[in-house]
Amino acid sequence: MQNLNELFTPCLIVEKSKLINNIERLSSRIFKEKTKFRPHLKTAKCKKITEIFTKYFGSRAMVSTIEEIEQLKDCGITDFLYSVAIVPNKLKRIASCLSDNCQVTVSIDHISIANELVNFCKVEGCKISAVIELDFDGHRSGVRPNAEKQLIEIGKCLSDAGLFRGVMSHAGASYNLSNNQDLLKCAKNEAEQTLEAVRILKNASLSCNLVTIGSTPTVLTNYNNDAINELRAGVFVFFDLVQTGIGICNIEDIALSVLTSVISVNREIDAIIVDAGWMALSRDRGTSSQKTDFGYGQVCLEDGTIIEDVIVTGVQQEHGIIQVRKGSEALLPNIKPGDMLRILPNHACATAAAHDRYYVNDKITGEIEVWDKFNGW
Amino acid sequence: MQNLNELFTPCLIVEKSKLINNIERLSSRIFKEKTKFRPHLKTAKCKKITEIFTKYFGSRAMVSTIEEIEQLKDCGITDFLYSVAIVPNKLKRIASCLSDNCQVTVSIDHISIANELVNFCKVEGCKISAVIELDFDGHRSGVRPNAEKQLIEIGKCLSDAGLFRGVMSHAGASYNLSNNQDLLKCAKNEAEQTLEAVRILKNASLSCNLVTIGSTPTVLTNYNNDAINELRAGVFVFFDLVQTGIGICNIEDIALSVLTSVISVNREIDAIIVDAGWMALSRDRGTSSQKTDFGYGQVCLEDGTIIEDVIVTGVQQEHGIIQVRKGSEALLPNIKPGDMLRILPNHACATAAAHDRYYVNDKITGEIEVWDKFNGW
Fold this sequence. Notes:
2 copies of one chain form a homodimer.
Chain A: E1 11-15, H1 16-33, E2 36-39, H2 47-57, E3 60-63, H3 66-72, E4 79-82, H4 91-95, E5 103-108, H5 111-124, E6 129-133, H6 148-160, E7 164-168, H7 180-203, E8 210-213, H8 216-219, E9 230-233, H9 241-246, E10 256-266, E11 271-274, H10 278-281, E12 298-301, E13 306-315, E14 320-324, E15 340-344, H11 348-352, E16 357-362, E17 367-372
Parallel strand pairs in A: 1-16, 2-9, 3-4, 4-5, 5-6, 6-7, 7-8, 8-9
Antiparallel strand pairs in A: 1-10, 10-11, 10-15, 11-14, 12-13, 12-15, 13-14, 16-17
Helix pairs in contact in A: 5-6
């Protein structure tokens, strides 16, 4: 295929050169710091993109579902870290993924689960190693980095069984920031709190081979700490409007968009109606708390040219309402039913989740490739 | 399978008896009025449920995607109405669905598209009939019901080619109401405005064989108008918290829920963390503008018992945060990692869209059946 207008809308477009630029930007940052990098596969959920990751970053990856391990274990990844605190009834499926070329590490924040993991591995004769999940802003699961008793109890239980690998934390709070100074502070805090837990464990003779932290905004700041031996990020691969608002990318860096057809023009409310509703865009409103609110997405012409101040102001299941941002003097593009537009997403993970394939626009070859993706758990 | 706790979480549960009750409730209302009913397939997107619909309602159905026609045309439906205003580049795929047992009607709100449809059918030698979409609250696509010139122009163009079928409207505004009096008014307005368009067309010798209106809230009020020959509704099949807030169902009628595992208990913020985030629940916040805000969903025990005032207060991709509703004296259930809970959704269509199958809990046989569903366009 060579033309976007041959595609059936709504569908997901990836600009290949932007995708590669985003990966190279992260790669150059990481190699400079001589720290290992573990990309999160939950954003793209795609074999082709995972294979590109292995070329740049090697054999480590983070996942948020076991489905990601099962689907992507033949793409060159041999070391999976499963980010969602494990529960016992998921261990059997993880065990069936294990091989010489597929090691899985889970995350744990409670001694009862550590005990169950140890017991499971003994009974099944398998090895599923674990990190302790840290929670340094008290927002969800995880052990507090200064919770000495809990850390040592879990660490010792895992270590005695040969399953202890280290600690993991995630600066989720970085998503609420909007300038480099705050991001540096957040990155520093993430690293230092994590290292406090590492010290506590070390004092109890529990050594952390893996000290893994990160989020796209903190990884891409200039903060560096040699005692951290692994960084993680996910959404950097596509970027999105939320990351633009945080200030960690430009709107032109966003590699993902939804191609949509104009289905009606409503002059009464000065709106263009398109066939991309919340099914295709998601209901994510991540930019609503940022300085610039993009509604449900920024509107572009079919070729990707941004139409300043024209956004998706409303969505229904299969309808998107496009209007000029309130207070702006901008005009709607002169467009008619059947024409196509593109929408840049608030949150790439959420928009990608609504689709089962990427149409990858390679401007060098002039070809549009189809890269399958998947969803589910 | 016989036990919910054998299921891999997060996943979708349908209570079969509630599903059937919801369908029978609508069915008894419709047969009383001697009006045809056209269920919307976009909510469930499921062969098994479509086959049940054909038993109760016959061979008509509404769809929001062409994928729904392709997937469901062998379930007993022979008369599909495609709800999203058609654009020319979708006609080819529709044409390839047509057969003696599969008739497709599209909706149109612009003369240029009517001309293109007529031309397409002539060139391809096929028949895709059309209704004129009416917009009586000026909110998205559609022709105003009193826009005489437009109505007659489109109607005549279609009629001359033997493709004109009638008019279609949808009382989207009914979703913002919360009492029966307003719903009755809304249903009456929907019918009367639609009939105004029918009169205008009739005066121009354009006869509407199909006069189709409806939304779950307006169809389930007691309003009746014999001049309307078809009603439509979709979400009635599962119901959800938004429909509870509108007052058209009880919370006990909701047939759909997400089964989730507790992955952590955070005493610091009095929260239960579960493995159902926005990926499994959707980001729909439909109840946020209603009298009772359910956050991202109402929490129930594994057996479906509602835990009063315990709701999902936050979601990340694969994490849900469960807390007591602000200001309530209720307590969190005494629960530990590995235990299961269920979440009732704000908006059934959005939550169902995140999954690829239903686990149907049949309390009579004691079995859990798997009913596949699909997504995409």
